[in-house]
Automatic annotation (TrEMBL):
The keyword Lyase applies. This is Orotidine 5'-phosphate decarboxylase. InterPro entries: Aldolase_TIM, OMPdecase_AS, OMPdecase_type-2, OMPdeCOase_dom, RibuloseP-bd_barrel. HAMAP family: OMPdecase_type2 (MF_01215). It catalyses: orotidine 5'-phosphate + H(+) = UMP + CO2. Signal peptide: none annotated. SMART domains: OMPdecase (SM00934). Residues 16-284 form the Orotidine 5'-phosphate decarboxylase domain.
Length: 308
């Protein structure tokens, strides 16, 4: 009921990073696409099958180095129910390989509907007497803007099943300040207020490292705010996207970590999935190129933090 399982893995692997599996078909090497698209045609089904092979090969190459993956649901929903099946299989395959899985769904709704999202992604669905796991991820990204009743159903599942959530606090995109940086009457920004709510929501779920089951998404593209939020939210684990393809650099990330080098996990998606394109290596070596990139990323970030 905290992020202890994730932090244990980060310490064991000495690696505070997560690979985002956001697989567009154009990232998948031709030789894999031909495997299905030549025989089945250019269909959603064939694309979803090719994407699963792509994900599987990357997981095979990175699972001994990286503690977690973060599949972004949109890249699977694009392929309809075939894509959803690929998401489900990808989650299962990563878990079989010992990885922590954070589904990036950025979900939120009223309490009743949020209960359905919580059961779908983190908990289980009741079918008669049976409680059946649908996706079974370890954590989910969520939007907190509907307030406490939209978060409560998630907290219930986090407590019962040892899961976690990452709430959007200060996002990495260029327009994030339009709303998130606005000041409230009490002088706080909206993102500070959302961060404070994360501390409160997580209060009774703190684990052995002091971090609760309620984490926050804070973009690598805003290093000063990342540093400021680390001080402000001592019990909130950060998911930090924006490193690599969005321009966030390793040095700017250090303020997001605590003095033990914990408290944050940095995501990279395109830079890992498409490392083979950047390297210009044979496309058949795409998974090895992903492996080289995750090692480079780990070493790049770890040089600035005190993770023992
Ligand atoms: O919640 C997220 O993961 C997220 C929040 C945010 O503020 N910015 C952000 O980029 N993300 C996600 O993080 C990933 C970043 O991908 P790359 O820019 O390719 O590394 C994508 O899956 C985004 O949807």
């Amino acid at each position: 009921m905290s992020f202890d399982r994730l932090i244990d893995k980060i310490i064991e692997m000495k690696n505070p990073t997560v690979v985002g599996l956001d697989p567009k078909l154009e990232y998948v090497p031709e030789f894999i696409k031909r495997r299905y698209l030549d025989s089945d045609g250019w269909t959603l089904k064939a694309a979803a099958k090719a994407i699963f092979d792509f994900n599987q090969a990357i997981i095979d190459e990175i699972h001994d180095i990286v503690p977690a993956i973060k599949p972004q649901a949109a890249y699977y929903e694009m392929y309809g129910h075939y894509g959803i099946r690929t998401l489900e299989k990808t989650i299962r395959y990563a878990k079989l390989n010992g990885m922590f899985v954070m589904t990036d769904g950025k979900r939120n709704d009223i309490g009743a509907t949020m209960e359905a999202y919580s059961n779908a992604h983190l908990g289980a669905t009741a079918v008669g007497e049976n409680q059946l796991e649908a996706f079974g991820a370890d954590a989910l990204t969520v939007n907190g803007y509907l307030g406490t009743d939209g978060i409560e159903p998630l907290l219930k599942v986090c407590r019962e099943r040892d899961k976690g959530i990452f709430v959007l606090v200060k996002t990495s995109n260029p327009s994030s300040g339009e709303l998130q940086d606005m000041k409230l009457a009490d002088g706080r920004t909206i993102y500070e207020c959302m961060g404070d709510m994360c501390e409160r929501w997580g209060e009774d779920t703190r684990g052995k490292y002091g971090y609760s089951a309620v984490g926050a998404v804070v973009g690598a593209t805003y290093p000063e705010m990342l540093t400021e939020l680390r001080q402000r939210l001592p019990h909130t684990m950060f998911l930090v996207p924006g490193y690599g393809a969005q321009g966030g650099g390793a040095e700017g990330l250090k303020g997001g970590f605590d003095e033990k080098g914990l408290g944050a996990i940095v995501n990279s998606s395109r830079a890992v999935m498409c490392a083979y394109k950047k390297e210009g290596c044979d496309e058949r070596d795409f998974a090895k190129a992903a492996r080289r990139e995750v090692i480079r990323m780990r070493d790049d970030i770890c040089q600035y933090i005190n993770l023992k």
